[in-house]
Design a protein that fits this description.
It is built from no helices and eleven strands. It is mainly β and about 120 residues long.
Length: about 120
C-alpha cells in the first residue's frame, strides 16, 4: 500500500501565506507526478497545481503567480507555497500521486485532505 500524508493546513487571513506538504511512503517503485487538488462543498475536485518527476509544473489559472509547487524526488515529497491567499482559496486540499508501486502496478493514491480556510 501507499500512503500520502499531508501537513500544514489551517486558518490564514486574506493576503497571507501558507505552506503545505505531502509525503508519500509505502510500496513505491516510482512516482511520475504529484499534484494538489481542492474541493469545496457542492463542487467538483479541481486541480490546483502539479509537478512531474522531471520538474515540469502546471497551475490552475486561478493560482498562477500566487502558488508555487516544488518537489523532492528523493523523499517522495511535494510542497505547495501559497501566497496572497484569497477567501476563494478556502477548500479541502488533497494530495495525489501517480506512478508505479513496488509490484509495477499503476499507482494513483490520494491523501486524506487538509482544510485551508482563508478568512479574517
Amino acid at each position: 500500500q501507499v500512503q500520502l500524508v499531508e501537513s500544514g493546513g489551517g486558518l490564514v487571513q486574506p493576503g497571507g501565506s501558507l505552506s503545505v506538504s505531502c509525503a508519500a511512503s509505502g510500496n513505491i517503485f516510482r512516482i511520475y507526478r504529484m499534484g494538489w487538488y481542492r474541493q469545496t462543498p457542492g463542487k467538483q475536485r479541481e486541480l490546483v497545481a502539479s509537478i512531474t518527476a522531471g520538474g515540469i509544473t502546471n497551475y490552475a489559472d486561478s493560482v498562477k503567480g500566487r502558488f508555487t509547487i516544488s518537489g523532492d524526488n528523493a523523499k517522495n515529497t511535494m510542497y505547495l507555497q501559497m501566497n496572497s491567499l484569497k477567501p476563494e482559496d478556502t477548500a479541502v486540499y488533497y494530495c495525489n500521486a501517480e506512478g508505479l508501486d513496488s509490484g509495477y502496478r499503476d499507482l494513483d493514491a490520494w491523501g486524506q485532505g487538509t482544510l485551508i480556510t482563508v478568512s479574517s
